[in-house]
Amino acid sequence: MLRVRPYVPDDRASVLSLAPRLAIGMQPWRDLALWLSTVEVWLTESINQHNQKAMVFISEDEKGERLGFATVSHSTHFTGKRQAYIGELATPEAVEGRGVGTALLEACEQWAREQGYKLLTVSTGAANTRAVSFYHHLGFRDEDVTLTKLL
Known about the structure:
Layout: E1 2-6, H1 12-17, H2 32-48, E2 54-61, E3 66-76, E4 82-90, H3 100-114, E5 120-122, H4 129-137
Parallel strand pairs: 4-5
Antiparallel strand pairs: 1-2, 2-3, 3-4
């Protein structure tokens, strides 16, 4: 049994504990410590904006054990078109493949529809092949590509 619910303040430590999962697929030329501190800032901002500019969802099992989280917020494409954006979605490695990510994504989709959005976007590292496959499997399509050259 899996349940997805809105974030409550007691979830803070659980959300922040999953920050390292958001470094999966990070390119080796990036600084891991800087990456993780930036992710923690993002997560803290989403938590602080919960039920305002963002929504944070928590997934838990029938015993109330937290199994992951997702953040979704209002965004604007460069064309000016408003859309919803999944900022972060993370689960512990031990629950991968058990439907937790799908349940969190469905909660984000529902929130986006309720806000009147027709588009939901997400970004992930190109080397995070498991995440890329997950999003493709759930109907997301490639739109932008960022290329980096080491100097």
